[in-house]
Fold:
Amino acid sequence: MIQNIIIADDSSTARMIIRRCLEIAGCIDATFFEAADGEQALALAKDKAIDLLVTDLNMPNMDGRTLLKRVKSSPKLTTVPVIVVSSASNEAVEKSLLEEGALTVVKKPVSPATVASALETLTDDNQWG
Structure:
């Protein structure tokens, strides 16, 4: 069951939209932690017991790709599922993010349906639920 979720995006509006989509998709009892960049998200992930990380790709200080690599290379965090949100619709970028350990890539604009689909990937992997 997903209890603690980090949403990393430099836009507070985007974080609010992602949170609302997650709630609509079924994460109504989750605790949400917000980060404006990858550095804040990584610090939160190291400090909290995180069940899911949703990160934007383009952020200041530490981007989503670097955050993904840091999470997947950390023994404590390597099992945390990471959903990458991106406005880039480049298949090569998406493929490389999946190869680097992203659970899935969700294209902007996010919607409850796209978030629910991403969460179903967790269920398919028996990591949620």
Notes: The chain is about 45% helix and 20% strand.
